[in-house]
Write a structure and sequence with these properties.
The chain has a domain at 5-41. Helices cover 13% and strands 19% of the residues. It has one helix and three strands. The protein has one helix at 5-11; strands at residues 14-17, 23-25, 39-41. A hairpin with a 5-residue loop joins strand 1 (14-17) and strand 2.
C-alpha cells in the first residue's frame, strides 16, 4: 500500500458497482446511481517495482 495508512483505510472503505463502476460508501445495499444490487469492495492497488527489472 501507500505511505499513508489512514488514507489507504479511507480509500478501501468504498464499494464499487459492477454495472456502472460508481463508488459508493461501504455498507450500501444498492448503487446510488443505477440502483444495481451487486457491489464489490474496492481493490487495493499493488505497488510495482521501479526500474523495469526482469
Amino acid at each position: 500500500m501507500g505511505k499513508f495508512p489512514l488514507a489507504d483505510k479511507a480509500f478501501l472503505s468504498v464499494v464499487v458497482c459492477l454495472k456502472c463502476k460508481t463508488r459508493n460508501p461501504k455498507g450500501t445495499v444498492k448503487c446510488r446511481k443505477c440502483n444495481y444490487p451487486h457491489l464489490r469492495p474496492k481493490r487495493a492497488r499493488r505497488k510495482e517495482a521501479k526500474g523495469g527489472g526482469k
